[in-house]
């Protein structure tokens, strides 16, 4: 048996673009994808803190260091530029794996940049 568990998230990033005429997905700065261990093409859930929308889509790699967070296609109707979103990925694990698994949470700054520690 497998259960679906929280794998990683990019917490509270600002939407920089919304492109209704693109074919779909969310474009995310490659630095953020790498930090959160989210792959290009991976299914993610986007939670919009401004309006409560929850959207499922897949990721597209955005320009590294750009801070881009762009909702594409139909999802563009569910956000406004400037909205704060949380991007969450999940994984299927056995209950035994899930008990020891450690998820990743990334907390970028107000410009969607990784905070240097």
State the gist of this model.
With about 120 residues, the protein is mainly beta.
Chain-wise SSE layout:
Layout: E1 3-14, E2 17-19, E3 25-29, H1 30-36, E4 43-48, E5 54-62, E6 69-72, E7 84-93, H2 95-100, E8 104-106
Parallel strand pairs: 1-8, 2-6, 3-5
Antiparallel strand pairs: 1-7, 3-6, 4-5, 4-7
Summarize the structure in words:
This protein starts with a strand and ends in an 11-residue tail after the last strand. With 117 residues, the chain is mainly beta. The protein has an eight-stranded mixed sheet. The chain contains two helices and eight strands, in the order βββαββββαβ.
Query: How many beta-strand segments?
Result: 8
Q: Report the portion of residues in β strands.
A: 35-45%
Strand order of the largest sheet: 2-6-3-5-4-7-1-8
- The number of helical elements comes to 2
Structural class: mainly beta
| SSE topology string | EEEHEEEEHE
Low-confidence stretches: none
Report on the biggest sheet: 8 strands, mixed
Question: Could you name the CATH class?
Answer: Mainly Beta
């Amino acid at each position: 048996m497998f259960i679906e568990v929280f794998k990683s998230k990019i917490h509270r990033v600002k939407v920089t673009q919304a492109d209704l005429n693109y074919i779909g997905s969310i474009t995310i700065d490659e630095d953020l994808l790498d930090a959160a261990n989210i792959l290009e093409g991976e299914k993610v859930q986007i939670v919009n803190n401004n309006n409560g929308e929850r959207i499922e889509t897949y990721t597209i790699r955005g320009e590294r260091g750009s801070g881009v967070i762009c909702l594409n296609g139909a999802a563009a109707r569910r956000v406004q530029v400037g909205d704060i979103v949380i991007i969450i990925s999940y994984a299927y694990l056995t209950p035994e794996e899930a008990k020891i698994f450690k998820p990743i949470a990334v907390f970028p700054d107000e410009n969607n940049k990784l905070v240097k520690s």
